[in-house]
Amino acid sequence: MINTKKIGYLGPEGTFSNEAVLQITDDSTLITPYDTIMDIFVSLENGEIDEAIVPIENSTEGSVLVTLDLLTEYDFKIKSELFLPIKHNLLVQRGKKLENITVICSHSQAIAQCRNYIANVQKQVQSMSSTANAARYITEISTAAVIGSKLLSDKYDLDILEENIQDYDNNVTRFVLISNHDNNEITGHDKTSIIISLHGDKPGGLYEVLYEFARNNINLTKIESRPSKKGMGKYNFFIDLEGHRNDVLIENTLNDVQRKVEFFKIIGSYNQINVGGN
User: Fold this and answer.
1) Among the four residues 58, 63, 163, 222, which has the most C-beta atoms within 10 Å?
2) For this structure, is 192 an active site residue?
3) Rounded to whole angstroms, how far apart are CA atoms 269 and 139?
4) Cβ distance 128 to 151 under 8 Å?
């Protein structure tokens, strides 16, 4: 009997998460949409899926905070990452024009990434749970438009009224593939992600951590703080660094860092999946 790999994503069909998962799977993979990122993590923990792809960061709007928080709470690893160019379009029912539209619907992230366009056309805005749900909605409302992907135009038989309406041409979302394990193999093009929290009563704690990376010439590609939920002024720091955790220099440096912090967690060593542009 052939075991089919099951991968979860933030649905429904037609979302950019759906587009991302299609970039890394084929017909032999069973992909399952979920309503929320929390639902994805719970399903992965319960063994209902083998892996999941979730958004973690957008070049325009920054980090997806719920993903960061859940990576702290759950013991999953980042297995790989991919960068998906996000091209937003204004979609309408067949034959409709901009003057017919009174409201633009989409997910809050898509709306935020198209602020300038929305301001210029001066339409009302309605935030919805996903771009796909917004597309379903406008199939029944002739005076509504949706901001979304070309995938939605095909799925819901919508006209693309205007293309590439995002505020910035280099609008990219970073997705991560999470699993119960990461990649042990060193490829030479790896990244490692960790989470730390500092001793609250020790001045200069963050400086001491950053010094360990600096003195070993290890490049940090990201550092971000999130409330630890343990009281005011208490934070977790998410750090991405170049290199693999099994590389001797990285391993020794992370051991030194671990001795200087209150909480330490490696959430994966991984490389980037190459995908075509959109």
Assistant:
1) 58
2) no
3) 43
4) no
